[in-house]
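Notebook p. 47: complex prediction with nicotinamide-adenine-dinucleotide.
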Amino acid sequence: MGRAFVYVILGGGVAAGYAALEFVRRGIAPGELCIISEESVAPYERPALSKGFLLPEAPACLPSFHTCVGANDERLTPKWYREHGIELVLGTKVKSADVKRMTLTTIAGETISYKILVVATGARALKLEEFGAKGSDAENVCYLRNLADAARLVSIMQSCSGGNAVVIGGGYIGMECAAALVTNRIRVTMVFPEAHCMGRLFTRKIADFYEAFYESKGVNFIKGTVLSSFENDSEGKVTTVILRDGTRVPTHMVVVGIGIRPNTSLFEGQLTIEKGGIKVNSRMQSSNSSVYAVGDVATFPVKLFGDEIRRLEHVDSARQTAKHAVSAIMLPEKTTDIDYLPFFYSRVFTLSWQFYGDNIGEVIHYGDFFAGRFGAYWISKGRIVGAFLEGGSREDYEAIAKAVKLKMIVKEKSELEKFGVEFASNA
Ligand code: FDA
Ligand code: NAD
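Predicted complex, C-alpha cells below:
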C-alpha cells in the first residue's frame, strides 16, 4: 500500500514550513505536495523553544509560532495546509529512503513515492553518551531540539524553581537556556571545555561581556573542563554533577547543549555527503537530480566565500535555502545561483546581537563594552568579511549586513574602531 505525490518534503521543521509557503506561492495544485514529519505538530519556528516558550509568565505557545511568523510572513496553521490541499503526515518517522526508486518508507510500513523530494530533516542533539559519559537518560536531564523536549524542560524547570541547575555546553543552547533558567528563578552553573562561551563565534573580548552580564545575574562559570559522571538518588535523578577536574556540583536538574549531528543517515551511500551534510549545488540539488536538501542538513556553496561549501545551523539559512530550492524546482529557468549572506543572532535577557558573514581573519572591536553597545569587524585581505553588533537598531544591523555583503574595503583599520557602525553606514 502506498501514496504518490509530485512533491514530498521530508521533515516538518523550519525549512519545511518556508518551502510549503513557497510551493503555494509558485502555484502547486491540491494533492501534489506532502510533508512527512516525525513531530506531531505542523512546522513551527524552532527558535521560540529556547526563548518565548521558556518564559515563566505568558509563554509563547502553539499555534502562535507556526512558520512563517518568524519572517513576519503568513502563519501556516494546520487549517492552512488543509485549505491548500497539502497532505501533512505528522507523528510519522521515515525509516528508509530509496532514491533510485524514488520512495520513502515510514515506520508504519507505508511507502510514499515522489517525483521531487526536498530533504529537510534538520539535526538531532548530540548525547553525552557519544562523548563517553553515562546517565543522560535520567528524568531530570534535558536536551532541547523539539517541542516535546521543550515541554519536558518546562515541566522540570517548574519543579525546580528556587533550586539549582547545571548547564553543560557553552554554545547557543547553553547560553539561551541558562538565561531562561535564571528567569525561572533557578541558580545556574555553566560547564564547558573552552576558555570562554560561544567559542565558535565570539572573541574573548565579546565573550567577556556576556559572561560578566550572566555573572551579574548569578550564573557561575566553570570553564576548561567537562563532565566526568553523574551521581543519582534512589529514584535515579541526578543530584551531583562530577567534573573531570574533580569538582562536584550539587544540582536539581541538568540541561545539555553540546552540539548537533545533521540527520543524513537515510541517504548515506545514496547521496554525496560532505562536511556532515547532504552536498547540494547552487540550486540546492543533491547528487541525485530528483532530491533537494535544505536547512541544517544541507551543505551548499556560499558565493560570498568564493563558493566554498558550508553547512549552516541557523534559522535564516533554513528559510532562505528552502525558498531557493522551491524556486529552482518550480521555475528552473528563472532561478539564479543561491547568493546567501550567513546571518546568526541571539536574544537573551535584555541583550540582543546579530552577526553577518564569516569570523575569519583579523578582528577589530569597537563601541562601548560597558554600556552594552559594541561590535566587531572581521577583516580578511583588506576587506570586511564578518560583522557582529550587540544592541543595535534595525538600521545599524542593515548597515553591517550591507558592509559584509559588499565586502567593504578597509584602507585604514583604525577607522573601524573609531567609527564603529558608522563606518558600515557609508557602505
Ligand atoms: P528542523 O530541525 O527545524 O526540522 C527538521 C524536521 O525533520 C523535524 O520536524 C524532525 O522531526 C523531522 N525529521 C527528521 N528526521 C525525520 C525522519 N526520518 N522522518 C520524519 N521526520 C523527520 N537559529 C537561529 O538562527 N536563531 C535562533 O535563535 C535559534 N534558536 C534555536 C533554538 C533551539 C531550541 C534550536 C533547537 C535551534 C535554534 N536555532 C536558531 C537553529 C534553527 O532552529 C535551525 O537551524 C532550524 O530549525 C533548521 O531548520 P530545518 O528545517 O533544517 O530543521
Ligand atoms: P553549539 O555547537 O552552539 O555549542 C556546543 C557547546 O558544547 C560548545 O560550547 C562546546 O564546546 C560544548 N561541548 C562540546 N562537547 C562537549 C562535552 N563533551 N562536554 C561539555 N561541553 C561540550 O551547539 P548547541 O548549543 O548544542 O546548539 C545546538 C544547535 O542549535 C546548533 O545548531 C545551534 O546553531 C542551534 N541553536 C541556535 C541558536 C541561535 O542561533 N540563537 C539558539 C539555540 C540553538
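Notes: The CA atoms of residues 14 and 46 lie 7 Å apart. The first helix runs from residue 14 to 26.
Next step: compare against the earlier run before touching the bench.
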